[in-house]
Structures are given as structure tokens and as C-alpha cells.
Amino acid sequence: MLFSQEFxxxxxxxEIGFSARSLSLGNTxxxxxxxxxxxxxxxxxxxxxxxxxxxxxxxxxxSYFGNYxxxxxxxxxxxxxxxxxxxxxxxxxxxxxxxxDQANFxxxxxxxxxxxxxxxxxxxxxxxxxLKLSAIYSNISKFNKSExxxxxxxxxxxxxxxxxxxxxxxxxxxxLPQIGFTGKRYFHPEYFNDxxxxxPSKLSLGTNLIHLGGPMDSFIPGLNKINKLSAIPNLNxxxxxxxxxxxxxxxxxxxxxTVGIDLEKQYSFSVNMGRGNFTRDSYNSLNQExxxxxxxxxxxxxxxxxxxxSINISRFSVSYAQTFHPYFNQTDYFSVSFNW
Length: 340
Fold this sequence. Notes:
8% of the residues lie in helices and 54% in strands. By secondary structure, the chain is mostly beta strands. It has a single domain (2-339), classed as monomeric porin ompg (Porin). The chain has a 14-stranded antiparallel barrel with strand order 1-2-3-4-5-6-8-9-10-11-12-13-14-15.
């Protein structure tokens, strides 16, 4: 806990992940098309702009990391390309043992952190932009320490779809269908000048590297003759990659891969795997490998440290993710979304 606060600054825990689906895909920018989730990663959102969205995420079974709950809402403005939304995150963990720099036991304390944001987004053709105003409040009981800071984030996304590969028949293969940029800056009333690592500024580049989709009868001849199927299921694959840089800290990368099946755009199932927040350089006396191991177990599943699945049934979506940590074992996340 103390190391996390020192290295990342307050607000680090609110970046754990906003949804189980996005977390299982390494928290990449375009990993979740649900508007209430997407505006958390980038205040500019293009997909599903004409639908309202409510999203809830909850984490279970890991007392070391405490209770973590997220809530999001998105509402498009009628007869316009604009929309508004808000995000909320609650993080609470208790019975933490506190020690001073001489290893003297100071007693147990509780830590709480809350994040809230209001988002405005708009689009023109295939380009979207957005603005996010946010605030973070953190409190450490028995130490009489509480902090409040505000933040500003601007973002943009581009629906490229310019590199569609021709001659692939009924299959749709697109390189770089989406790309996005965000810039984030936080402001603290007292520590602005001498606490540079207090929720550091961050620049992010997010991409949907490749989208591949097509009917499954290309692999299973005669599938279209099965009378019980109202339509031929489609197989799809997406690869996501993000690169982010915080002030004075090493750059980080995130990777997500999802493989799914959908039927008439009403029902879908996908398996998700991700590798989140792996550093690209060393920091002070910590090398790159140690930094990665502090975040996740880099040896698990050969490369991926998150795995999960998503089920979509009409307007409802349910997702599950499991993360792996070398010291605290696995943690489970569940998300539920509704669009109308």
C-alpha cells in the first residue's frame, strides 16, 4: 500500500479498471464499446452513441485489495451528435498495518479513495472529441490525512476504417479501425509545485490494431443447412494495444486479444485475454522486470496476466475477469451493463 502511494501518487487505485471486460483486455482504450465504460478511458466515444448505458462493476474475494466498485452512466443528447455521462469509483480497504521509517508499529488504519467525473462528448463524421472534469478524494484514518484534487482530461478518437483489405470474400478484415489520444492533468491546491508524482499527468495512445470478422460457415461447411439456426453465427477477433506515459515515470504498454461469436447482433460470447501495464523502461533502482512483477505475475499464462469472458444478450451484458498477482493470488471482477 505505502509503495503504491509513493510510486503512483494518490488516485492510483482508481486506475485498477472500470469494467471486467476492459480489465481482462489489459485496460486498453477500445476494449469495451459500452459508452458508460468507454468514456472512462477516453472522454471521446463514438460507438453506440445513440444509446443510453448504465454499467456496474464489483470486485470480490481479495481482502488484501479491499472493496472496489465502479458505476457509469452515459446519455446521448437527442437529435445531436453530443452526449453526457458520469463515472464513479469507490475503493475501500481496512485493517492495514502501518509502520514508520524505523519499522515501529503504528497501529491499523483504513484507507478510502473516491473518484468522480463528468464527461461531455461530441463527434463530427468519423472524428470524436471529449472533455472530462474529475475529482479524487482519499482519506487515511487515524493519521488525520485526507487529500482532495481536481483533474482535467481531453480526448479524441478516430474511426479510420481506411485499411480494409479487399478480396477477402464475406470476411471483413480491417487494420487500425480505431485510434485515440488522451491527455490528463490533475491539480492539487497545496502540492502543485513540489509533489510532481501526486497523480501525475498522463498521455495515452490507444489503438484497435486489427478487426477480423466473418461467417463461421467458411470453417464449417454445411452449417447454413442446419434448420435450427435462424442465421449463420459470425466469428470475430480484435487486437488492442495502448501506450501511455506518466510524468517522469517509465512508459507502459497494454495488450488485449478477444475472440468471440455473435448471432444476429443480439447474442454474443467472447473470450478475453490481456497483458496490462507492463513497463518499457526501468525506474530509479527498480529494473523493468521487477516493476512488472510488482504489478502482475508476468510468468502466468506464458504472457497474459488477465483473462475473462463476456456474454451479451440483447440489451444486457455480463462480463467476468480474473487477474493474477505474484503475492496476492487471483482477484475476480464482475460487470453488468444495460443499454436502451
